[in-house]
Amino acid sequence: MNEMRFFSPDPAVRKISTELYNLVKDYPILSPHGHVEAQIFAENKPFPDPAQLIIVPDHYVFRMLYSQGIDMLEMGVPTIDGVSTEKDSRKIWQKFADHFYLFAGTPTGLWLDHEFREVFGIEEKLTGSNAMNVYDAIQVCLEQPAYLPRTLFEQFKIEVLSTTNGASDPLSDHQIIKQSGWTGRVIPCFRPDDVTNLNIKNWLAHISRLSEITSTNVHNYKTFIQALEKQRAHFKSLGATSTDHGVNNAYTKELSVEQADQIFQRALQGKGEQGDAERFTAHMLMEMARMSIEDGLVMQLHPGSFRNHNQMVFERFGADKGADMPVRMEFTRNLHALLNKFGNHPAFTLIVFTLDESTYSRELAPLAGHYPAMRIGPSWWFFDSIQGMIYHRQKILETANVYNTVGFIDDTRAYPSIPARHDLSRRVDCDYLANLVARHIIDMEDAERMARALAYDLSKKTYKL
User: Fold this and answer.
1) What is the Cα–Cα distance from 420 to 451, expressed in whole angstroms?
2) Which pLDDT belongs to residue 24?
3) What are the b/e assignments for 411-430, b being 16+ CB within 10 Å?
4) Helix H segments across 143-250?
5) 80 and 28 both lie in a single domain
6) 31 - beta bridge partners?
7) Residues 270, 387: one domain?
8) Which residues pair with 300 in a beta bridge?
9) What is the C-alpha separation between 357 and 392, in angstroms, rounded?
10) Are residues 420 and 301 in the same domain?
11) Handedness of CA 11, 16, 17, 21 (dihedral sign)
12) DSSP 370-385
């Protein structure tokens, strides 16, 4: 691969980019938010085949193919109802290779190129004609002990990897990892949307499960809070340092205990009223902030996404199939209640992500540039691309600087893409800083400090790793 990839063609800037990149390229990887399953590390079994590793779990891959009319069934994506999907991994791979040209210039294409070359040693560009040769070469790799999940963890220089787990998750795989004696640090992140979002499918079943695993009879708001606090403590005992909240918007508002209990009781009885879910979620964000101050877990907020926009795909294949779309957000007023109550507290950290890039300079940077508790999460989903990262930095730097951000977070389900994603981010950040040095906006000492912060220091400090 070209060692100058992603750097400016301007020789003066490229020289500085290279110096900065060489400073940070070998730093360990911190992955404090993502969706790789803990099960692969608990079992530590060989990955089944290239298609099941690279294509089937990665919505970045199959959403592009779907947009070109290729049915997800052809790509092996399992359905909710168990209707037969393509099981022949070679057929899945051939279809993928036939259309690999679709990924040219996209971050997915860049990540895949890195994976093929750096992880699996594939020198030739994937095409329909060499699909089976590439498949076989990767399959040979996957059958070797060097490609077991735990071994790759060490080869990738991953220092910490966080999974994302629902509030009603017993964390059995994390317990197996902890008891195994393996030194790799895989930790859970507490995501309680399954019980705090009254509109979520099977909400009552999740409440029942939460009752069971916490040995708490959740029959009212008080016992609900007790169960959540118990489960947060369980997550912490297995290494968790953060929570995550995927909400429709950033609206926060504190209710009285009586008001919260009334809404909760109506939900238990299946008699919810219009507006109950939104009001309850807004209140629970306040409660989660309060709990974070007490137990030290960092709070992450992910608004700005119309999740599962494609109803047909959602009903057929389920959630998280590449159909989450950006929507316009408002933060200044919506976060007012939470930040006024907790934003000045030294024990509280709130990381805000959004798909609405128009808010970066208008709201997020001013808020994070003032409230000590608030940090801005990195570009997410559509914006974890080269241009998205550059735009993100341009809109935030002057108001909040890099020190009110949290560095890069890969947020991936595709395990072998983790080093590729971090390498791309480090290169783009170093090139962005090099441009500032070349224009005499910052000096080299500043740039080196900022490059280290973005590559490693900020995530380690903010996520308490």
Assistant:
1) 17
2) 98
3) bbbbbbbbbbbbbbbbbbbb
4) 149-155, 172-180, 193-196, 203-214, 221-237
5) no
6) 161
7) yes
8) 244, 351
9) 8
10) yes
11) positive
12) T-TTEEEPPP-GGGSS
Q: Is residue 4 part of a domain?
A: no
Quick check: 425 and 398 in contact, CB under 8 A? no
Within this chain, do residues 54 and 120 fall inside the same structural domain, yes or no?
Answer: yes
Phi and psi at 34, nearest 5°, equal -170, -175
Is the full-model pTM beyond 0.70?
yes
Q: Compute the distance between CA of residue 236 and CA of residue 270 in angstroms, rounded to an integer.
A: 32
Distances (CA, A) of 77 to 56, 59, 84, 313, 391: 6, 9, 10, 11, 33
Model pLDDT, residue 382: 75
**Which domain covers residue 54, as residue numbers?**
46-147
CA distance 95 to 110: 19
β-pairing, 158-162 with 350-352?
unpaired
The total domain count for the chain is 2
Q: Whole-angstrom distance between the N-terminal and C-terminal Cα of the chain?
A: 32
CA dihedral 284, 34, 47, 128 (to 10 degrees): 120
Measured CA to CA, the distance from residue 47 to residue 41 in angstroms comes to 11
Determine, yes or no, domain membership for 192: yes
298 and 462 Cβ atoms separated by less than 8 Å: yes
What CATH number does residue 87 fall under?
A: 1.10.2020.10
With a cut of 70, which residues of the chain have pLDDT below it?
none
Same domain as 230, residue 118: no
Residue 196 tokens read as: 């705090």
